[in-house]
Specification:
Two copies of one chain form a homodimer. The longest helix of chain A is centred in the middle third of the chain and has 13 residues, at 39-51. In chain A, α2 crosses α3 (39-51). Chain A has five helices and five strands. Chain A is α+β, with helices and mostly antiparallel strands and 126 residues long. At the A-B interface, α4 and β5 of A face α4 and β5 of B. β5 (107-118) of chain A pairs antiparallel with β5 (107-118) of chain B, so a sheet runs across the interface. Chain A binds a DNA duplex (30 and 30 nucleotides) through α1 and α3.
Chain lengths: 126, 126
DNA sequence: ACAATAATAGTAATTGTTATCGTTTAAAGG
DNA sequence: CCTTTAAACGATAACAATTACTATTATTGT
């Protein structure tokens, strides 16, 4: 993997962002600083970074994939109204992958937990 | 909601299917019995059934939505090789939505837990 | 500095899904 | 029954998210 300014910018922007953006959202943000960047470049690098374990994909939302700079297993809260994704500072069970593997006999390598509901900002708007 | 032969067939087929198929997979299967059915009808009815709580959507896979005839909260195992979705007969924590709500202060209404790994069939093929 | 090759921008193509629209069909009342 | 009405249909166009393609540019090792 060869260095590129665009990839560094993508990673830096993702790390500074708290809501785990989509490729499109990142693209719109980065465009302000780097107007010639291509949407394809954002997608290409996000996938590349995720494949190399540097960032993490978050599926589980309707249609669009989000990206997270934190790679360790943790939980998310997805607002069903504004569709933003937040980290959940709460742990159900430590070593969940291992204990679930033992219990079920399945070869579990990772997991995703997504909680859904209306976030505090969206609740205020009612 | 008015009765339709197509909807009944979709629901019946989903209930008989163990791997929680996508709309496309259901469509291909149903076509054998009902060759004139439209893919749009499959999508329309799966969404309608899910909105009415009769079936459940499973997001969380790369891109494609799967559907599940079981509506109560339960966990899934997604094979990262063949992309089939299986039920996980294992419960981490009862009343997870409520306890996580209390713990975090978030207004959690539902959740999804997806384990990932290689299923037994795919392990055999190596 | 130069060759080799990875990465880029721009855009076309693909894929999963939804919307549209004219036609068909199930349910309810006369 | 027969008619009316609205829901559902099939076919296909439209759409949105993502990937593939291609000619050009940038990075790295020598």
């Amino acid at each position: 993997m060869k260095y590129s300014r665009q990839r560094e910018l993508i990673l830096k922007t993702l790390r500074e962002n708290g809501i785990h953006p989509t490729a499109e959202q990142l693209y719109e943000f980065i465009r302000q600083e780097e107007p010639t960047i291509s949407l394809a470049t954002v997608y290409r690098n996000l996938n590349l970074l995720a494949e190399n374990g540097i960032i993490k994909r978050i599926d589980g939302l309707e249609g669009t994939t989000h990206f997270d700079h934190q790679t360790h297993d943790h939980y998310h809260f997805i607002c069903t109204k504004c569709h933003r994704v937040f980290d959940v500072p709460y742990e159900i069970a430590p070593n969940l992958a291992e204990s679930a593997s033992k219990e079920t006999g399945l070869n579990i390598t990772s997991y995703d937990i997504a909680f859904r509901g209306i976030c505090k900002d969206c609740q205020k708007l009612n």
